[in-house]
């Protein structure tokens, strides 16, 4: 599945993105916007984007600032990532999206939904570390030895897309980690106003970055939320692609949650 890499700079940083539209009807429909995690890029979604195209959905993938073919930046604040994504939607003339985000991309997606009412129609948060509340301890992510399947999927992804590794601006890592380790009461205050039906995906094996207690609190605060737990670690869409598609594609195409 091929599509040219396009660029836009809605906030002064060049963002690379690709679009896929399997039909004229799909091109006019609400697109699915796929947002990768830290250290990846839009090509991590190639297999899942194919599943969406088969379901006749228009798909947009984006490389966040400092990743893939996008430009590097002087700052990597969560709000800046979110402004980039919302700005890309405005650049494309997109008034509503179904947004799927992995890890950092999931948190960015939640901010886009909170800060731009009506823009995000449905929201999928895959293995997204949830912000801390005041007084919460920093969750510990136990070290684990990858399974042979996880090693195979990681090695295959690297071989198919080495740019994700070589182009990543590693200077952002301390900033992103520090932001995740800093309580964010504003995010929690805005959660009840997030109207978009939300699907939260959590891996249940070692390596998951979703704290179960924070997940329970988030689901209780969200007006319309559901949870799916899948037997893998942090990268569900990569390591359990079929299970990921089986959970997400019906959610994105269910008219009852539109």
Report on the structure:
- It contains eleven helices and eight strands.
- With 258 residues, it is of the alpha/beta class.
- The chain has an eight-stranded mixed β-sheet, sandwiched between helices.
- The relative contact order is 0.15.
Could you give the distance between the termini? Answer: 28 Å
| Overall residue-averaged pLDDT value | 90
> Helical element count?
11
The stretches of 5 or more residues where confidence is low (pLDDT under 50) are: none
Structural category is: alpha/beta
The coarse silhouette is globular
Strand order of the largest sheet: 1-2-4-3-5-6-7-8
Largest sheet: 8 strands, mixed
Strand content: 15-25%
- Helicity range: 25-40%
In angstroms, what is the radius of gyration?
17 Å
Reading the helices and strands in chain order gives EEHEHEHEHEHHHHEHEHH
The tally of beta strands, per DSSP, is 8
Write out key terms for the chains shown.
258 residues; alpha/beta; 8-stranded mixed β-sheet; 38% helix; 16% strand; globular
Question: How is this fold's topology laid out?
Answer:
Layout: E1 6-8, E2 15-20, H1 24-27, E3 32-35, H2 46-54, E4 59-62, H3 78-92, E5 97-102, H4 104-115, E6 120-126, H5 148-160, H6 163-166, H7 173-180, H8 185-190, E7 198-203, H9 212-221, E8 225-230, H10 236-239, H11 241-253
Parallel strand pairs: 3-4, 3-5, 5-6, 6-7, 7-8
Antiparallel strand pairs: 1-2, 2-4
Helix pairs in contact: 2-11, 3-4
């Amino acid at each position: 599945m091929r599509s040219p890499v396009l660029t836009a700079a809605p906030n002064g940083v060049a963002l690379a993105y690709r679009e896929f539209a399997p039909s004229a009807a799909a091109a006019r429909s609400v697109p699915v916007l796929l947002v990768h995690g830290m250290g990846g890029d839009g090509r991590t979604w190639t297999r899942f984007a194919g599943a969406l195209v088969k379901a006749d959905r228009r798909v947009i993938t984006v490389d966040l600032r400092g990743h893939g073919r996008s430009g590097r930046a002087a700052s990597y604040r969560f709000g800046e990532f979110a402004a980039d994504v919302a700005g890309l939607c405005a650049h494309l003339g997109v008034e509503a999206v179904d947004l799927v985000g992995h890890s950092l991309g999931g948190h960015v997606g939640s901010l886009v939904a909170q800060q731009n009412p009506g823009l995000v129609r449905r929201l999928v948060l895959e293995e997204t570390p949830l912000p801390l509340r005041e007084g919460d301890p920093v969750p510990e992510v136990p070290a684990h030895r990858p399974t042979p399947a996880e090693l195979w999927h990681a090695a295959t992804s690297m071989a198919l897309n080495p740019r994700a590794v070589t182009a990543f601006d590693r200077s952002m890592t301390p900033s992103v980690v520090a932001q995740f380790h800093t309580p964010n009461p504003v995010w929690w205050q805005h959660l009840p106003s997030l109207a978009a039906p939300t699907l939260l995906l959590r891996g249940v094996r070692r390596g998951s970055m979703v704290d179960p207690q924070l997940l329970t609190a988030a689901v209780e605060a969200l007006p319309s939320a559901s949870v799916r737990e899948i037997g893998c670690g942090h990268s569900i869409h990569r390591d359990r692609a079929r299970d990921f598609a089986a959970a997400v594609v019906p959610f994105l195409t269910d008219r009852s949650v539109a």
